Structures are given as structure tokens and as C-alpha cells.
Amino acid sequence: MASILYVATDEGVVTLKSADGHNWKQEHHGLKDWQVPEVAVSPQAPNKVFAATRGDGVWVSEDFGATWKKPCYGKRGPGKVRCLTFDPHDASTLYAGTEPIDVFVTHDEAKNWQRLDTVWNIPYVSTITYPVAAVEPHVRDITIDANNSQIMYVALQVGYMLKTTDGGKNWELLNKNLDCDVHTIVLHPEDSNKIYIATGGHDSRAGKAPGRALYSSADGGKSWAPMAMEFQEEYSVPLTVHPTKHDVLYSAVAKGQPGQWRKRNTGAEAFLIQSTDAGKSWKKLDGAVSQANHSFVESFAFDPANANNMYAAQRNGDLFGSDDSGASWFKLNVNVPALSDMKATVA
Q1: What whole-number distance in Å separates Cα of residue 119 and Cα of residue 126?
Q2: What is the pLDDT, as a whole number, of residue 134?
Q3: What is the spatial distance between Cα 320 and Cα 237, in angstroms, rounded to a whole number?
Q4: What would the pLDDT profile of 70-93 be if each residue is shown by its tens digit?
Q5: 337 phi and psi, to 5 degrees?
Q6: At a CB cut-off of 8 Å and minimum separation 6, what does 73 contact?
Q7: I need a surface site. Which of 6, 158, 179, 192 has the fewest CB within 10 A?
Q8: Which long-range contacts (CB under 8 A, 24 or more apart) does 187-193 make?
Q9: Which of 299, 301, 288, 275 is nearest to 331 (CA)?
């Protein structure tokens, strides 16, 4: 059995393979002409991976990333795709969040798409702006309740969150006491009313939000409380729950936002953090990743065959591994182009 990492980069999708989790080999590099913000692996087939392209919809590979095709070629569908999420109860159903703001759904593995126009029934959505000229307001993350597929959360850039409890027929805006720049939404595996979010700290820097980078809700998003106030850093993207230890959370935080990192010699000044009590308290994780703090970890992944094996992917294309659930880290022997996402599977 081999471990597989699919890495979404600014120059397509890179497939990495390892027999032991330490020594990696690049197997494939496809879709090189496209920026790929996110990949999603079929829950039923590790060889089948879907790629969100920022300009040409959703592509799929059925041979571990060796060759790619666009299932909805010539048909209506999403264009600039920023995120992809499988319905946890139906491996043929996939949601795509796009730029500008839209949510699409397919029930046949990306062959045909429907646009959920209902998100625009929230008047606020049409007022959202984005501070970078080359980027329009967009959907950054879609998270579906594992216990009830009708419940879904959508992160808007830069415009808080939407929630539906009826599969997208109706939506509500969640915008009280949280940062407007929501990057990642995670639900606790045992209590889906417990929500964790990682944000870009936009409102923190403007003095408009009570927290910094991370927030939690215990009531399905009605109310929010800051997390990780032990740290001054106010920017985060990656947020994940340990697959078997559900009160153990991981994130990465940085000082300021990416525009500031590029202007200073010290870069992101980033490091990894961990909570072992469901987000109540956090500590810094030392080791190779936090020492390489000029770049920023965009994504975590756990090896499905061994939950102690986890991986961290930095924006600059450096990859790190841990075989003790993040207590210590080592740099992987491969580099990829600038990246934004990574998913792990086994084959």
C-alpha cells in the first residue's frame, strides 16, 4: 500500500507517491496551464481526483493525475472555481464555490451542473467587495454537515458566512462577532453544532472584531467566540481536526496578511499551533515547519492508513511530514510549484 498526495498548485496538480511516508517521488504533473486552488479526492476511488481550475471549471483524473478531462465540456457550469466539497453521503454529489460568488452542484461527478441562485437572495451578497484588484469576491470554502447533508456553510470573501439547513433553498447570513474574512470552516465530528473557523484577520486589523485569526461557535453559528488569543498573530488559513482524536485541532497563524509578508525580509513570520481541548487553549508546535517561518502553511493532510502520519504544505511549495501527529516534523524530499491545497489518500 502506498501513500498518495495530490497537491493543488498555481501550475496544475502534482501527484506524489511514497511507500514509507518519508521518501517521495513525483508521479504526475497535470493541468500545468491552470491555477488550481483546490483538489477533491473521490471518497470511493483514490485514483479519481477532481481539480478546481481558476478559469475552466472542474476537471477530473481517473488515473491518479496522469491524464485529465473536463466532464461538462461544452455545457454550462462553473468557471473560476475556488473550492470543491463532496457531499459526505453521496460520492457523486460535489459542490463548487466560484469567483465571482456562486455555488454550483453536480449529482453526476461534474458532468452536469446546477447553479444555486438562491445565495443571491441575501441582499448583502451583492455588496461584498474584495481588496485586491485582480480578484473578485468569491466563495472560499464549502462545508457540509456529516450528519445532515441539508446543512451547509459557505465562506465568502470578504463577506462572512452563509448557512443553509434545507440544501440551499434558503440561506442566512452569519455575521455577528466573527471576522468577515472567513477562509476555512470545520465542524466537530461528534457535534456538528460546534464550528471552528480560520480567518484572515481583516476585521481584527481594523479593530472591528473581538478576536484575531480563529473563532468557534457552539450553537451552529448563532454566536461566536475568539480562539487562540494566546497569540498576537491574526492571519490563518489551514484548520483541521485529528481524524481519531477529535478534540485535537491544528492550525497555522501568521503576522499580518500576504501583501505585508512580501514587503518584509522576515516574510510571514508563521508557525503551527495545536489545541488538545477542542479549541479552548492552544500551544505553538515547534520543529521544522515552524522554523521555516518565512512561508506559510496553506494545508494539512492526514494519511488515511495511519492517522499519526500528517503532512503540512507551505505556500512556497515546501512540504513537511510528521509521524507523531505533529509533535515533530521533517522536510519531504520533493518540491512543487506555489500551492494552495493538498489531499492525502492511499492506494
Answers
A1: 10
A2: 93
A3: 17
A4: 999 999 999 999 999 999 999 999
A5: -65, 170
A6: none
A7: 192
A8: 187/143, 187/145, 187/146, 187/153, 188/241, 188/246, 188/278, 189/146, 189/241, 189/246, 190/246, 192/145, 192/146, 192/147, 192/148, 192/151, 192/220, 193/217, 193/218, 193/219, 193/220
A9: 288
